[in-house]
Design a protein that fits this description.
By secondary structure, the chain is α/β, with parallel strands linked by helices. The chain folds into three domains: 2-175, Rossmann fold (3-Layer(aba) Sandwich), CATH 3.40.50; 181-240; 245-386, no CATH class. The chain has 19 helices and five strands. It has helices at 16-28, 45-57, 73-82, 102-113, 134-144, 165-170, 181-194, 202-212, 216-229, 233-240, 245-252, 258-271, 274-292, 300-309, 312-323, 332-345, 348-363, 368-378, 380-386; strands at residues 34-38, 91-95, 122-127, 151-157, 172-175. Strand 2 (91-95), helix 4 and strand 3 (122-127) form a beta-alpha-beta unit. The protein is elongated, with a radius of gyration of 29 Å. Residues 347-387 have low confidence and may be disordered. The structure holds zinc ion.
Amino acid sequence: MQSSQMIKFSELIGNTNTISLQKKALLSGRYPHFVLNTGPMGTGKTSVSQIVAMYLTCESPDKKYIEPCGECRICKQNINILSTTGIGNYIVKKNMGSIEANKEMSDTIREIFAYKAGIGNKVFILEEIHLLSTLSQGMILEELGRLDEHCYVIACSTRPLDILPELKNRAISFSFNILNHSESLILLDRELKRNKLNKLGKEEEEFILKASKNIPRTLVNTVQFLASSQPTIEELHSFLGYISQEVFLEIFMNTKDPSYFLQSVSNLVDKYSYEFIYEQLQQFVLYWMFSIFNVGEFSETFNRCLKPAIDFKTVRRIRECIRQYPRSSVDLEMIFWDIKNVLDNRGEGSKVMNQVKIADDNRNITGTQDTMQKLTAFNPKSAKLGG
Ligand SMILES: [Zn+2]
């Protein structure tokens, strides 16, 4: 069972300085009795708290690598309780948000701090300590003075500003941050290997990184979800929230068939918001420009069909087509039609499009369907094809 496995310091990625400070404190044998780990959700506060708690209570910790042994009687109990109730003889882990009534809260706090040595070290992990009322935080402050020398309190918080200043001042604080880009890449690589997800392409990997916003927990969860649900490429794209290169390729490779072209564009518009398509289209064209200089990896279809057929100047012209429309009033059909014209006539079409746009503005027509019909009628090429 995955959840009952022990986490180790050596497996954590990022927050290098924070973690090495905590390890040094453990090794010195003078780990502070009241610690506050702060930082955004999913950045490893709880993981570090748990490893520290296990190290402090372990019967024979590994002093060379500074890790709990994971094998002794106490470690085994700790591993078990940390993945279940959170209440053990050596470690107690509680989320302060889950204690509701005031009565229960004060009882819990008293119970926590009533511990007197006898069975060795005991560690209390208090998650989201800022969720406690001022009264309860004051109570903890009071109890801290009576803390047994074998008792440790490790508090975690995503909102340190909501913690009583007096309480915060009593703690040794460690801050946790999201990962930087290269740390994210290392974590992604490890998780993909661990989950045997080798079929993912560069494009998909980029989007996992983007979707996880450099938060380690989100990244790990996303990869695990993908591994367990084994999505098709289509499902993967919709899960990651982006439009695949293939969708745009399909459209741009079929500009010579106006009815098919229009249908593809309208399918796209039905499925996603205008702003989203605009952003994705910009990105696709950017990839396209890069690909001409062989930077980055692209889909096989892309390399086979679009790349050899289009020169840099044309792609740049396409990019200008997109940019001339402000994002706020995106008229996607116009953009696609503009691109179609660039591809079909190597630029001649843009002039035609500008005329249509002016004509449209004058008539104050905003309806998509109307615009589309007008475009089809206006374009001399498609009119010829239609007749
Ligand atoms: Zn142990």
